[in-house]
């Protein structure tokens, strides 16, 4: 079986969970004997990171780069867009017409590639590739699977949903033979908001690599020596991620326990707003902006933290709590996430419930026995969430689709 | 001759509200949730009263009225009796009426539905005594047969019961300890010579308690006729069929639409249709039969899960941490002699709190999830530990206050002694009194002293 796959991001590029998901799934599919042609919009390294060695499968995967300026997480890169106006809350309304042009360009290339290559099925990851997927389907007549890692509703936290992206999503879902979402949470969104028939949508939860990570010397030793407790946020600083709720909860926490330090690792179009919010709430002493941490620095921070918080307003899946668990740190995560569907040994909270968010942060810090148990049992739970299982599900989906079309 | 011994356990805990870290030191009400969730104790008692207690008691009363041979036993936790009194007094009255028939036996138990026996025997004894008094006060009867929380049992518990005058004790009829032997006879615990053990026939009990409404079960739907046949088939090879289950089986665990009420309504008549089948209370059962052998249970046995041990309550680290924390408080809490603090501490000992923290997510785990009012075991632990932290704070305040008061008293005494010393003997003017008046005064004073002493004794005894 040969699959023409479109994506925009692949390790070792530093873009977050989506590349990681594409990598994990592709690696396991190739091990199932599936031949994957992975099309990326632009030239980038795809090997070279020791954690994601790909060399042994290289014969099965050929990475094709298409000349394009596509940037994933488009709304995070506000400097490449223009601000059309501001909403009632003073947040900029960002237009992404440029990105849409890029997506069209990608689609044009995709059509050519589809004519050059031979394959059985098309698999397009996330909205920037949907048009490419549709184009490839038109050019080849092969069945199309769209893989939803996020929706316009997530990225906009349901406010000011980008009509251009929404339109592409709707067109894509209509043209696709099957739509795959990374969670029931996301399935519900596209069924409700985009009107996709529920039986057209399959949920394939993301997996997780369960190799024991390298242990590092903890960072922030000065703080640790003062017995400060460390609560980490790791992710983009955008409206989708709920960092503003996290800061409000931080205020409640500090009122009770001033010996807590909040570390924010990440960057995004809300960074300035969050820095201002921290200042206004008198939290400058308690919040550290670490910039976007990657690889060893990120892992070290995961290992240093006492608790990791993922306060997302709308999170299709959310790999952060899984990564934290592997590094031996428990998490408090928003119930508005796909990860909350599959993880038992994490604390959960509704993102808007500042009071409970603060209560659970304080409780986790007070009770080390609970933190330890969450990690011990959580790690066992991770063993059951492998990419292998996700790929097996995906493989069955491919097969069913081909059977259905040929019979 | 075959006798059937039904026993229903009635219990509701005081569930802890979502007690937050911010509440520690600010809110000493742990059990007063008023939300629309299952943490609201009043709401639960009212709900279960409508679904189970009221309709079931009505049927049981009818059965007692219409079948002179119908008998059964009940056990109550003190926490459910207190909640009936506060939230559903009519339910309590209907139980009183059932028991007044003389054909409903009430069993001994711990007041707070706790696992105290395994952590602190003195505390266990206090709770059993408190329970006994409450049962006497409400129902006018004195329990003679003992059952422990979650039917937990061990050799030394049986010994304790024998030493304290109980004639019978209940336990799970579990194969691990029975081997090839049948649960349908009475057994003797090792080292005991009077007390008899009544073993639950878990197959027949759980057919009703767990499987009755399960449409995937091969025997679904179970009719009272079939069930009667199953019981009657034991004739000749059994003396007593002990059917032990939660009272809430009727209407709450098995909903009305499963047909459970009709089942209950028709079963006694069908069972006693055969002349050589009778109902017996636990006490009658113990008095009717001799033991057929010894049952040796060196480790804790319960009626829960497929493991039949305490792992549903103490199987993981947070459960062990919480249960240790509560029993570690014992000496200090008791030192306060503060009724309110001691009562709060005991309410926190109720086994349900630890059950909600269970993380055995196997088939059993689903049962735990169903019975937990919390969204996760960690939420249960957080609420518990935060409430416990507040209680610890109150206990230490109370002890500091007591100490301060004691110091103050000591200081006053010292001062008094010092002033008395300051007054030199020379300045004391001898008082001369008429002899008769003196005699009168001294008898009056000694009389007073006597009365004061007996009063003191009285309080000491209390």
TrEMBL record, chain A:
GO molecular function, one term: glycosyltransferase activity
CDD domains: GT4_PimA-like
UniProt xrefs under InterPro entries: Glyco_trans_1, Glyco_trans_4-like_N, Glycosyltransferase_grp1
Start and end residues of each Glycosyltransferase subfamily 4-like N-terminal domain: 16-211
One Pfam family cited in the UniProt record for this chain: Glyco_transf_4
SUPFAM superfamilies: UDP-Glycosyltransferase/glycogen phosphorylase
Domain Glycosyl transferase family per the UniProt entry, residue ranges: 225-380
Stored PANTHER family: SULFOQUINOVOSYL TRANSFERASE SQD2
Protein's UniProt name: 4-alpha-glucanotransferase
Organism of derivation: Candidatus Kaiserbacteria bacterium RIFCSPLOWO2_12_FULL_45_26
Automatic annotation (TrEMBL), chain B:
InterPro entries on file: GH57_Enzymes (IPR052046), Glyco_hydro/deAcase_b/a-brl (IPR011330), Glyco_hydro_57_N (IPR004300)
Name the UniProt record assigns to this protein: Alpha-amylase
Alphabetical keyword list: Carbohydrate metabolism
Occurrences of domain Glycoside hydrolase family 57 N-terminal (ranges): 7-298
Protein family: Belongs to the glycosyl hydrolase 57 family.
GO BP, sorted A to Z: carbohydrate metabolic process
Gene Ontology MF annotations: catalytic activity
The keyword DNA repair appears for this protein: no
Top-level taxon of origin: Bacteria
Organism of provenance: Candidatus Kaiserbacteria bacterium RIFCSPLOWO2_12_FULL_45_26
Short name of any one Pfam family annotated for the protein: Glyco_hydro_57
CDD domains linked to this entry: GH57N_MJA1_like (cd10795)
